[in-house]
Specification:
The chain has a single domain, classed as P-loop containing nucleotide triphosphate hydrolases (Rossmann fold). It is built from seven helices and nine strands. The strands form two sheets. It has a five-stranded parallel beta sheet, sandwiched between helices. Strands 4-3-6-5 form a four-stranded mixed beta sheet, with helices on both faces.
């Protein structure tokens, strides 16, 4: 019987530190490779196409949906933005013999859990207030409406989505090294490292 490929999912609300923790993990363990997701949103000031996301237009994203080029996708209604995972990216990482690390939402987490051997970790801030401070420091010019939407999305993720993940790691302000240690403990237990 063929074994399912391993996938690591590290999720969390915007500003929780899931991307930082993913990058630190990949730096330390070469068997992991970040799965770059595709989005229809515009890049932020410090983001690069093909590094942070594959940034494409909404029309091109919808063509990819129609052409069945995406494994799964989500439409964030209150921001009118798409996020998804491409078949091509998954095949690229698996062909390198690496374990893909995905930063996906609950839709992606459920999808990959059905088809692959997964470990899912939800990264949470110690509070929504701290998350708000992180979002403001990361993007001081954020419009109030956008800030409120992101906090509302974070609250929803923390209450409705977090329970579906196998593990939860709290990333306390200024303690990213401790959060990484917790993730490493999980991965040792799950025989990923």
């Amino acid at each position: 019987m063929k074994t399912k490929p391993k996938i690591l999912i590290i999720s969390g609300p915007t500003g929780s530190g899931e991307t930082t923790l993913t990058n630190l993990l990949i730096e330390k363990y070469p068997q992991f490779c970040r799965f770059i997701t595709t989005t229809s949103r515009a890049p932020r000031d410090n983001e690069q196409n093909g590094v942070d996301y594959y940034f494409i237009s909404q029309a091109k994203f919808e063509r990819k949906i129609k052409n069945n080029e995406l494994l799964e996708y989500t439409h964030v209604k209150n921001r009118d933005q798409y996020y998804g995972t491409s078949r091509e990216e998954l095949n690229r990482i698996i062909s390198l013999g690496k374990i893909p690390v995905l930063n996906v939402d609950i839709v992606g987490t459920r999808f990959f859990a059905k088809l692959f051997q997964t470990v899912s970790i939800f990264v949470a801030p110690e509070s929504v207030e701290i998350l708000g401070e992180r979002l403001r420091s990361r993007n001081p010019d954020i419009f109030e409406a956008e800030f409120s939407k992101r906090l509302d999305n974070a609250r929803a993720e923390l209450t409705r989505e977090m329970p579906f993940y196998k593990y939860k790691v709290t990333n306390r302000q200024g303690e990213v090294a401790k959060a990484l240690e917790k993730i490493e403990e999980i991965l040792k237990k799950e025989i990923y490292i």
